[in-house]
């Protein structure tokens, strides 16, 4: 009597599931493309946060104190890091669901990140319109 190891049985079951879902490879590739898009978004948010903080060094400050621009840059950078963290977790969750053929799209991620981008955009608009202009700037409101 020859006993098969449990791992061999699991592999056979996975092969059977792969045959049931012929678009499995395409689904995994789509999941990976989505993950890479979220990674680009996270990196862009991080970069934008750094740019916001560094812009102050290119302009002579009107007020000698640090101001509030660094806070907005910090929030952008933190949202970028959170995006990278959550997108990685989401990638592995979707990967498992594709393998088990139980994937259901989640609307909460779309809502959460849409709200985050809207809040950050409102922060940028507020920051731009409330920061004092350089007196040497050719654009001075009347």
Automatic annotation (TrEMBL):
Record key words, sorted: Cell membrane, Membrane, Transmembrane, Transmembrane helix
InterPro entries associated with the record: DUF202, IM_YidH-like
Transmembrane parts of this sequence: 35-56, 68-88, 109-129
Main location as per UniProt: membrane
Protein name in UniProt: DUF202 domain-containing protein
Location of this chain's protein in the cell: Cell membrane
Annotated ranges, domain DUF202: 26-96
Membrane association type: Multi-pass membrane protein
């Amino acid at each position: 009597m020859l006993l098969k190891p449990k791992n061999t049985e699991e592999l056979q079951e996975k092969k059977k599931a792969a045959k049931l879902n012929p678009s499995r490879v395409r689904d995994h590739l789509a999941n990976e493309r989505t993950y890479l898009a979220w990674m680009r978004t996270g990196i862009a948010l991080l970069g934008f946060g750094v740019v916001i903080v560094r812009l102050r060094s290119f302009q002579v400050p009107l007020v000698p104190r640090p101001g509030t621009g660094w806070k907005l840059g910090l929030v952008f950078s933190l949202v970028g890091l959170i995006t990278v963290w959550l997108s990685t977790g989401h990638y592995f969750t979707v990967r498992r669901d594709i393998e088990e053929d139980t994937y259901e799209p989640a609307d909460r991620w779309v809502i959460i990140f849409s709200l985050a981008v809207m809040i950050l955009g409102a922060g940028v608009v507020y920051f731009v319109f409330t920061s004092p202009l350089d007196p040497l700037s050719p654009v001075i409101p009347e």
